[in-house]
Amino acid sequence: MSKKEAASVTSALASLIGQSIARAGGWIPFDRFMALALYAPQLGYYANASRKFGTMPSSGSDFVTAPELTPLFGRALARQVAQALEVTGTREVWEFGAGSGALAQQLLQALGDKVERYTIVDLSGSLKDRQRERLQPFGDRVQWASELPDAMRGVVVGNEVLDAMPVKLLHRVAGTWHERGVVRADAGFAFEDRATDLRPPVAIEGMHDYLTEVHPQAQAFIRTLAERLQAGAAFFVDYGFPEHEYYHPQRHMGTLMCHRGHLADPDPLQDVGSKDITAHVDFTGIGVAAQESGLNVLGYTSQAQFLLNCGVLDLVGEAGPREHPALHKLVGEHEMGELFKVIGLAVGGFWDSLGFAQGDRTHRL
Asked: Is the dihedral of CA 108, 114, 117, 120 positive or negative?
């Protein structure tokens, strides 16, 4: 998307958000603003034609995900998916937010005839076009859906999908909690706080000013998934923390961040539609929502430990030294290895999941 096209999208999206604010009486909660900024049809970041995914800024992309870095990620995850398919007696994979289709391609290649159907649930029309082009060799085994069906069976995967679900912002000022929302301003948009009864899931020690996020939409997604997944399992990979780390007293500025051109900035109100808006995942909230809805938590660990458990070192040995730098990014403690976590969920009884065989941290959720 050219600069001129991007400016046109930003202008149109800002007008749409402004109309929403006006209809709501001059103020909307941040999660409503984030939903429009990311998902408004044809205009939101994930709904417009910008490239988004890629390894270098020169490609016009904004960020890189693990499957874009190396096929080792998908091939290692495929070992866990294969086990889950066998244990649950299912033959379908469901991927949420499939991006460029890189992970789908890697899983389909690695799993072969273990998968009868691969269904992608994605809201982005432009990304669906990229996915269709990439996955054309797999024919009608690959299907698309724009929403969850009433009933489903199979193994669900989601890489960096929970972090893009809209969050509410809570701001404690002088000991009083407020919900942060968005209003119109001369330069576009501005934050405005309003007193609220909402609270973080745990008390925040101290009386200092404190800004954080809560995640009702991500937790509602997990509850809906639990209602509709009749047989199978789910594995979500994302950056985040357990509750006691997420709401640490020293994390007083929250985790909300924007990404554009492989650079990060903290201002979601500027250049709407032209950059990603994300927040880290509260994995305790995800685990609790799953358990309360009848799913079992198979495990929770770092991305590094999960991939090692799935045999990524064997795979890199087969691939050769050219993949060593990418492997370091996947499992390095100061790269993606520790910041990213994996949580596994399942319908029915608990079973020993390959990815959590060692280093399971479920007790720390």
From this structure: negative
**Per-residue pLDDT tens over the stretch 330-350:** 999 999 999 999 999 999 999
In order of 30, 40, 46, 185, the CA distances from 268 in angstroms are: 10, 15, 14, 14
Cα 25 from Cα 223, distance rounded (Å): 31
Q: State residue 185's pLDDT score.
A: 95
Three-state secondary structure string covering 166-192: CCEEEEEECCEEEEEEEEEECCEEEEE
Residue of 70, 225, 258, 241 lying closest to 157 (CA atoms) = 225
Q: Is 126 helix (H, G, I), strand (E, B) or coil?
A: helix
> Other CB atoms closer than 10 Å to residue 187's CB: what's the count?
8
- Look up residue 310 and give its two tokens: 């799935």
Rounded Cα distance between 325 and 328, Å, is 5
Rounded to whole angstroms, the Cα distance separating 130 from 146 reads 15
pLDDT score of 230: 97
Q: What count of Cα atoms within 13 Å lies in the side-chain half-sphere of residue 313?
A: 7
Strands 176-185 and 168-173: antiparallel
* Nearby residues of 98 by Cβ (< 8 Å), 6 or more positions away: 104, 120, 122, 127, 131
Low-confidence ranges of the chain (pLDDT < 50): none
